[in-house]
Amino acid sequence: MPVNIPDKLPAIEQLKRENIFVMDSLQASMQDIRPLKIAILNLMPLKITTETDLIRLLSNSPLQIEIDFIKIKGHTSKNTPIEHMIAFYKNFDKIKDQKYDGMIITGAPVEQFEYEDVSYWPEITKIFDWARTHVTSTFYICWAAQAGLYHFYDIPKYQLDQKKFGVFEHTLNDPLNSIFRGFDDVFYAPHSRHTEIKREDIEKCPDLTILSESEEAGVYMVMARNGREFFITGHSEYAPNTLDQEYKRDIAKGASIEVPQNYYRDNDPKKAPLVRWRGHANLLFSNWLNYFVYQATPFNAQDIH
C-alpha cells in the first residue's frame, strides 16, 4: 500500500530498507484517487517505534492511506523528543472537525492506574466519544481496548497476579467474520500487560461479541457496532525484538519479571526470538482496512456519522 506519511518521519528510512512502499506528500498528490484518512492516537512511550510498527502493517494493501498522528494535549511525552512531537503530531483540537475513515488508538503505560486517575482520562474519553461520529471504524489496542470497553460498556479490568508477557496461541470464535479472512484455525499474538478483562463480564453485554480468545491469555478480540469498533487486548503490531527490549529493560531496572513465554527459542533469553505472529498481524490490519474501513466508509469522508 502506498502510505502517505509526513516528510522526514523517522519511520520512512527504516521501512524503505524493508522494501515497504511509503511516499511523501508530493508523490501522493500525483495519484488521482481519494486516500483513506487514518488517525493514529499514539499513547505508547516509544512513539517512533510504534509509528514504524503501525505503518509497516498499514502498508500491506493496494489502497493509498493518509495518516495523521494525534497526541493528547495535556500530556508531555518523556521518551520522545519534543521536536519530533511538534513536527509530526497534532493536538486533538486541530483535527476535531475532520472526519476519518479509520482510527487506531494504541496502548499506554498506565494500565495499573484506575481509569479516572489517569491524568488525560477526560481528554481521551472525549476522543472516544468523538470517534463514534467522526470515524468509520476504530481499532483500540491493549490499554486503549480496556479503556474503551470500560467507557462505553462498563467492562471492568482486573489486576493480574503476574504480568501476561509473551506470545500466545489464539482461536477463532467466528471464523466466517471478515476480520479473519485468510486466518488459520489458530494464530499467535504477543501480549504485554498487567491487567485483564473477563469473558463473563463481556457476555453480559449484548452489544459486544468476543471474536477471539486464548486459553493462556484470555479474551483477545471483541467487536462492537458491526465492526465500527474493535478492541484488541494484545500487541499484534509488535516488531520481532519488542518483547526482548521490554524484558531486558525491566531486568536492567531490577524489576521482578519472568522470561516472556513462548518467545525465545527454547525459552532461552540468550537465543533469538521465534517470530510467529507477523502473518496474523498483516492479515488483521489489511482485513480491517479492506472490509471495515474501505468497503464501509462513504466516498465523501464528510458523510461519516
From TrEMBL:
Keywords, in A-Z order: Acyltransferase, Amino-acid biosynthesis, Cytoplasm, Methionine biosynthesis, Transferase
Catalytic activity: L-homoserine + acetyl-CoA = O-acetyl-L-homoserine + CoA
Gene Ontology CC: cytoplasm
Catalytic class of the enzyme: transferase
SUPFAM superfamilies: Class I glutamine amidotransferase-like
Site-annotated residues for Important for substrate specificity: 192
Binding site for substrate: 163, 192, 249
EC number from the UniProt entry: 2.3.1.31
Keyword flag Cytoplasm: yes
GO molecular function: homoserine O-acetyltransferase activity; homoserine O-succinyltransferase activity
Active site residues according to the UniProt entry: 142 (acyl-thioester intermediate), 235 (proton acceptor), 237
Residue intervals passing through the bilayer: none
InterPro entries, alphabetized: Class_I_gatase-like (IPR029062), HST_MetA (IPR005697), MetA_family (IPR033752)
Subcellular location: Cytoplasm
Residues the UniProt record annotates as site (Important for acyl-CoA specificity): 111
GO-annotated biological processes: L-methionine biosynthetic process from homoserine via O-succinyl-L-homoserine and cystathionine
Pathway the protein takes part in: Amino-acid biosynthesis; L-methionine biosynthesis via de novo pathway; O-acetyl-L-homoserine from L-homoserine: step 1/1
Family as reported in the entry's similarity comment: Belongs to the MetA family.
Protein's job: Transfers an acetyl group from acetyl-CoA to L-homoserine, forming acetyl-L-homoserine.
Protein name stated in the entry: Homoserine O-acetyltransferase
Species of provenance: Paludibacter jiangxiensis
Gene: metAA
